Sequence to fold (213 residues):
Amino acid sequence: MKLLNAQEIKALLIDQLIDGRFENVVLGAEVPFIAGKRWADVLVIDNTHTRAFEIKSALDSLDKLKDQTTDYLDTFDFTTLVVSEVHLKEARQLVTSYVGLIVVKENGLLESIYAPKQRLRQKKEHLLNFLWRDDLIKAIRKKQSIAGNAPEAFYLRKKVMELYSTPEIRELAMNALRVRYGVRYNNFLSERGRKTFIDDLPLLTTIQPEIVF
Fold:
């Protein structure tokens, strides 16, 4: 059977997540985090948690997997690795028990090996990177006024870090992600049809202005 590439696996995963009938969720694809150092292949945002998925096809290397999953765990509530069956044995040895595992079988089906454990503490600076300039200014103005022209995003993030606790910043980040990907996800659902194709995936992606510029 033909080996599935990462994009094909991503489409299968999204179909499985949608068919799981999660309510009040938003899905994003290729979601940048840690200021573009990493990209979550698929991200699910619900009312209370973030669930990130990293995909490794048979064509991908696992050389950076340990570092990648560490960054995922420091950023999201739940992290799951979706891995081709040829990588299953090695992947088990590389990830911690906090990382869930889904294997892509030879017949193209996705089989859950074990569920992820919730990571209760994320790094404040990682969460802050989900806030764009307008998000940062709005957050600061809830606490205090901003005199004159607002400074660069780096200084805005520093101020938000001073004014807000980690749980509060986590809530700000989740709200920003829901807004950012919500319209795209609804458009994706209206265009998708009965199943997801690779050509549908760009509808779920967006790019952070600070990364582009």
Q: What stands out?
A: Strands lie at 26-33, 38-45, 50-56, 78-84, 99-104, 110-114. The longest strand covers residues 26-33.
